[in-house]
Amino acid sequence: MPPVLDAPRTGTVEDVTYLGDDAYLVMFDSVDTIDCAEALAGCSCLVRRADLPEGFDVVAQEALAGYRVCDEKHGFIGTVREIIDNGAQQLVAIDGEAGDVLVPLVDAIVIAVDEDARTLTTRLPEGLLDC
Q: Of 131, 85, 119, nearest to 105 (Cα)?
């Protein structure tokens, strides 16, 4: 994502609708034309932690505890013990046969979350596991 310079760069969320398959329709007060919306399609939205509702991160952390973690290459890794916020990023603490494994909670590594099956699918970097 390079930043879009010719579209609004700030705004307030007016509405969010879950579309399924980890897709959301987000309505911003500063986006009022289809051209503007199309210019922003596919861009990431950054939010200051202070602007999130109180307890937002606690709910997410508690919600993942106990999820099974399966990697594309290595198969079942273990279960989520907790989410650790180290200040720079969140880490998924996994208990499993490989011992205690810490995995950054980023889209490039945690590639899918199946809430119904209570499973995280990962694409672990080479060398993270010694197996």
A: 85
b/e per residue, 79-105, with b = 16+ CB within 10 A?
bbbebeeeeeebbbbbebeeeebebbb
Q: Rounded CA gap, 2 and 95, in Å? A: 37
Distance CA 113, CA 109 (A): 11
Q: What's phi and psi for 34, nearest 5 deg?
A: -65, -35
68-92 pLDDT per residue, tens: 999 999 999 999 999 888 878 889 9
Overall pTM > 0.70? no
CA distance to 58, 59, 77, 101, 109, per residue, from 54 (Å) = 9, 10, 32, 29, 27
Residue for token pair 């205690």: 100
